[in-house]
Amino acid sequence: MSPLQIKKGSTKHSAYNLRPTFSEHLETHTLAVIVDNEPGVLARVIGLFSGRGYNIDSLTVAEIDHKGHQSRITIVTTGTPQIIEQIKAQLGRIVPVHGVHDLTVEGASVERELALLRVAGQGDKRVEALRLADIFRAQVVDSTLDSFVFQITGTPEKIDAFADLMRPLGLEEIARTGVAALARGL
């Protein structure tokens, strides 16, 4: 048997089989990564995740310092505490990375996401969609005789709840930006 083959029932794990045991628990962390704004940096960061079998739940990227040529990558990922620490350590070793901040453990943070939802419906379903949008403080940004496009901002959980309520009313399509997050005031 080659070193790459694992016997049935073996306790060895590959990098792609990172399922937690009963003693491990999964945590969701929001990471803010400050990087040089240059070609290929995002691909290197994403390559770190895909190459090791880690998942990205949400990803946003934007330039934050035009003169200093820096961007901020906000990544929401889930893993065991050990895997989260590995991710942070490996991100910190990538040359164009200037800093890795785990907003989940560094203190209180503010997280928001933007979503656009197209909901088709007529009659009572149309009225109910508008009523729910008002409750969730969603805005109508486009309207036709057969559908609405709603814009909603808030936590990912708020957007999930709004989408769940819109499904039976005719939710056709949803586009989400991913999480943007900042640490709260010092």
TrEMBL record:
Top enzyme class: transferase
One annotated GO molecular function: acetolactate synthase activity
ACT domain residues: 30-105
Reactions it catalyzes: 2 pyruvate + H(+) = (2S)-2-acetolactate + CO2
Taxonomic source organism: Litorisediminicola beolgyonensis
Keywords annotated in UniProt: Amino-acid biosynthesis, Branched-chain amino acid biosynthesis, Transferase
Family, per entry: Belongs to the acetolactate synthase small subunit family.
Annotated EC: 2.2.1.6
PROSITE patterns linked to this entry: ACT
Pfam families xref list: ACT_AHAS_ss, ALS_ss_C
Function: Catalyzes the conversion of 2 pyruvate molecules into acetolactate in the first common step of the biosynthetic pathway of the branched-amino acids such as leucine, isoleucine, and valine.
Assembly description: Dimer of large and small chains.
Transmembrane portions of the chain: none
Annotated metabolic or biological route of this protein: Amino-acid biosynthesis; L-valine biosynthesis; L-valine from pyruvate: step 1/4; Amino-acid biosynthesis; L-isoleucine biosynthesis; L-isoleucine from 2-oxobutanoate: step 1/4
Protein name (record): Acetolactate synthase small subunit
